[in-house]
Design goal:
Layout lengths: L2 E6 L7 H11 L4 E6 L4 H5 L6 E4 L5 H10 L6 E4 L5 E2 L3 H11 L5 E9 L5 E4 L9 H6 L10 E4 H7 L10 H11 L4 E12 L9 H11 L12 H8 L1 H11 L4 H7 L2
Parallel strand pairs: 1-2, 1-4, 2-3, 6-9
Antiparallel strand pairs: 4-8, 5-9, 6-7, 6-8
Helix pairs in contact: 7-8
């Protein structure tokens, strides 16, 4: 299966070499498309990895992701990785293989953990194990999968028209909500596939704006029939992640953890 990995970057991340090394280790055969400001193209490429580097045509994460997946070339599925996150071997290749074996899968996703600015493990992100619960969890405001741990079929992103460029921070959530509403087929793969890095200044820490955008994204699930017990199943499946978080950081929410981790 031909895989395209997209990174939208300002070309300023000190973690970029780690990201590139992780892609080389976990997805050596993938095409890595990088979209960045024209003034940063030489800096981004200086790390030495084979990249397809494109000058951004519009500023913003989701315009750049749309530019990346619409770029010329052949691929069957894609994912995107931030310029500070990392893919994990061998789990990521297990995720890709699951999608390759079953062409009816539209989105495959696996387990993702959090790391800090030094690359040290923080804890696991809670992830839904039952794909039939995704719509209910999303409709209730629970994030049931983590974007760095997903692989998406090209036919699905084409059907959905890509990412909504009106969003600044939760366009990925909007995409997955629309995918659920469109009855896309999801599959959970029980493998550690990626790590999301927490550090000062990242967009995902802008709590108020995230909340406003999230409410807008969830409009696609208004009227969704809710599955009884979905929240309880989610909590039970992720009890180890909750215990680890409490043991290390006390009784704090995931949002509070985001705010205090650097």
């Amino acid at each position: 299966m031909r895989l395209r990995i997209i990174t939208a970057t300002r070309g300023e991340s000190p973690f970029w070499p780690d990201t590139l090394a992780s892609v080389a280790a976990a997805a050596r055969e993938a095409e890595h498309v990088v979209v960045c400001p024209v003034a940063r193209m030489s800096d981004v490429g200086a790390a030495g990895s084979p990249l397809s580097i494109m000058a951004e045509t519009a500023r913003g994460l989701y315009p750049s992701l749309n530019q990346g997946w619409r770029a010329r070339g052949e691929f069957d599925a894609f994912t995107w990785i931030n310029d500070d996150d990392v893919l994990r071997a061998p789990g990521f290749s297990t995720l890709v293989a699951a999608m390759e074996r079953d062409p009816t899968i539209d989105v495959a996703f696996g387990r993702v953990d959090l790391i800090d600015g030094r690359g040290r493990r923080v804890c696991d992100l809670p992830i839904a194990r039952r794909v039939e619960d995704l719509g209910t969890l999303l409709a209730r405001g629970t994030i049931p999968l983590a974007q760095p741990g997903t692989v998406i079929r090209r036919t699905l992103v084409t059907r959905l028209g890509g990412f909504d460029e009106r969003y600044r921070m939760v366009g990925d959530m909007d995409f997955f909500v629309r995918a659920v509403a469109a009855h896309a087929r999801f599959k959970f793969v029980d493998a550690h596939v990626a790590s999301f890095r927490l550090h000062a200044g990242q967009l995902s820490k802008h709590e108020t704006e995230v909340a406003i955008e999230t409410a807008r994204a969830l409009k696609w699930l208004v009227g969704t029939a809710l599955r009884r017990g979905a929240a309880a199943r989610f909590r039970v499946a992720n009890w180890r992640a909750y215990v680890e978080r409490v043991r290390k950081y006390g009784w704090i929410s995931l949002r509070q953890l985001y705010d205090r981790t650097h």
